[in-house]
Design a protein that fits this description.
The protein is mainly beta. The protein has 6 helices and 27 strands. The strands form 6 sheets. It has a 6-stranded antiparallel barrel with strand order 14-15-16-19-18-17. The protein has a 6-stranded antiparallel beta barrel with strand order 8-9-10-13-12-11. Strands 6-5-4-7 form a 4-stranded antiparallel β-sheet, with no helix packed on it.
């Protein structure tokens, strides 16, 4: 179900700083490195927390007095380790812009320009420490400004900063590779950086599972451009659609997002959202701002993030193309049934849909192969097989399709299992 939000309530989380403003960028302190080893309610009904360094803390009486020991799984308690993992792949991003000044009086201020900047965050996606090179993912709206003087409205002066080295003397120049206003993802390139060569940073580990409701959601970003910091919450909704105005101020885009209750603020844009293992599950990009709303933030899911980033790198790096080229099948998908399923093996509660072809365009490449009413069961592309249990699964997969690939779809037609093969051709690719 698509959710439409009033544009005034939904804000992209980029900090814009006007000329003359001064913001001090500095690292923020994190959660204590000591770990909880156990928690016990003693005979007096007091909660005693024991830490890995041998210390303990009496948190006072709690309801339900008794002699009960609570065993905490290390993967759940070690938030600091998961946060540290995220921090090691995090960067803050600064983009400088220039625009013409118009004071509204003929001839007054003509030819005058003003400089300003935006601040956000990013994630190190691919890293070559030996050469000091990296591809970095951030939000498109961090590097784009509709008012700036560049022809593509993209900053031509971008710097990134590693965690713990966020002063101007440690600025690392970065170049824009490409991106998508529609998906709100941009890819930056850093080359021959001595700081990267000497640093302890690492490329991000992307989760191989989709986000599920209730799991840990750690946001690492650059809130209010004060420097890289972390906040903690959970996934509130694993997948929903919101409609908002794009960074150009004109286009309306509908995006699939993860909803979280993790605190995010202006400047968190482009920063990673991590699970309890420190694996990337999304890129933070927006929140609802309203006096009656608390902690409703959004992140672009990891399958979309990596699909767009790989697409941009393949189509744009050292090439003239600057945008995503997505293959379209010409099929509209719908869900004819939906329900929750509990995975007893890993304790995850997931939504499972019956994904059905609702329309098939006569001009699309799937015409004559996929028919209205077909139930899609799985898809294989480049050796990767995806079980289609949500409508977005095959849509996300198509971001990875390249000219010359073959998409194999397993489906049910009137109860009969069938397999169809669709060749990916250049004329299927559409800019997004």
């Amino acid at each position: 179900m698509k959710k439409i939000l009033k544009p005034i309530l939904l804000t992209l989380l980029c900090v814009c700083v006007t000329a003359g403003s001064a913001l001090s960028l500095g690292s923020c302190s994190l959660i204590s490195s000591r770990e909880i080893s156990s928690m016990e309610i003693n005979s007096l009904g007091e909660l005693i927390v024991s830490y890995s360094d041998g210390s303990f803390q009496n948190l006072g009486a709690v309801a339900g007095a008794g002699d009960t020991t609570l065993n905490i799984d290390a993967g759940e308690r070690d938030v600091s380790a998961a946060t540290a993992k995220g921090l090691m792949s995090a960067v803050s991003v600064s983009c400088k812009f220039e625009k013409n000044v118009n004071y509204g009086y003929p001839g007054f201020g003509s030819g005058t320009t003003t400089k300003y900047s935006s601040a956000g965050a990013g994630v190190i996606y691919r890293l070559d420490k030996e050469s000091g090179s990296a591809f970095i993912i951030t939000n498109y709206h961090v590097v784009y400004d509709k008012s700036c003087n560049t022809s593509d409205k993209i900053s031509d002066d971008i710097s990134v900063y590693l965690y713990g080295a966020e002063s101007e003397s440690y600025a690392i120049p970065a170049e824009y590779v490409g991106g998508s206003l529609y998906y709100d993802i941009a890819v930056l390139r850093v080359e021959d950086s001595e700081l990267l060569k000497r640093s302890a940073v690492c490329e991000v580990t992307v989760s191989d599972k989709e986000a599920t409701v209730g799991e840990t959601a750690i946001a690492v970003g650059n809130p209010e451009s004060y420097g890289i910091s972390a906040s903690l919450g959970i996934v509130s909704v694993d997948s929903e659609h919101i409609t908002m105005t794009a960074p150009d101020g004109v286009s309306e885009v509908t995006a699939r997002v993860i909803r979280v209750d993790t605190a995010v603020n202006s400047g968190n844009s482009g920063g990673g959202l991590y699970n309890g293992e420190g694996e990337l599950i999304g890129i933070v990009n927006a929140k609802i701002v309203d006096s009656s709303v608390e902690n409703i933030g959004y992140a672009i899911p990891a399958p979309i993030v990596t699909g767009v980033a790989d697409n941009v790198i393949d189509h744009c790096y050292e090439k003239d193309c600057k945008t995503v080229m997505r293959a379209l099948l010409g099929v509209t998908l719908g869900s004819t049934s939906s329900g929750a399923a509990f995975d007893t093996e890993d304790g995850r509660l997931e939504i499972v849909e019956t994904v059905t072809a609702v329309t098939v365009s006569k001009s699309g490449v799937a015409y004559g192969k996929i028919e209205v009413g077909d139930i899609l069961k799985s898809a294989t592309l480049n050796g990767e097989t995806v079980e289609i249990t949500r409508t977005h699964h095959i849509i996300d997969l198509m971001l990875t399709a390249r000219t010359g690939d073959t998409l194999t779809v397993s489906l049910l037609r009137d109860g009969e299992a069938k397999t169809v093969a669709i060749n990916i051709t250049a004329d299927m690719l559409t800019a997004y």
